[in-house]
Amino acid sequence: xxxxxxxxxxxxxxxxxxxxxxxxxxxxxxxxxxxxxxxxxxxxxxxxxxxxxxxxxxxxxxxxxxxxxxxxxxxxxxxxxxxxxxxxxxxxxxxxxxxxxxxxxxxxxxxxxxxxxxxxxxxxxxxxxxxxxxxxxxxxxxxxxxxxxxxxxxxxxxxxxxxxxxxxxxx
Length: 171
Known about the structure:
- It is a single chain.
- The chain is of the alpha/beta class.
- Helices cover 19% and strands 9% of the residues.
- The protein has a five-stranded parallel β-sheet with strand order 1-2-3-4-5, with no helix packed on it.
């Protein structure tokens, strides 16, 4: 594959591919990757390392998800993934600021809601950003412990802070 290192377009559509050969990862100059009409059940994560990729076509495969690392494809302007088995889209789509085309019709998509998807790439990016930020902020909690003196409040707080299990008798 070294002789093909400057290849910019690869169309491997309708080849009955069930797996993508790892040697494709050496195609660092690739700008267009068309894998439509194959038997792919999974998109290998190394595809998400192809920093020059502008168009990714994976329609009519057997994909049930897209890799979370798809957000690493910062040059991506078009993602064609119709007629797969996608239920959700990865939240990392929020990082694809150049994405202009998102084709995911023909999937049993639940999240984001199809109405958001039909509103366009900006709406999907906004949704993914909102959900990501909401998930990040929900990882914090404020705990207020009230009770009588000697009731084990300090021991409980210490165990929460240090991840230790402490048995506190209930009285």
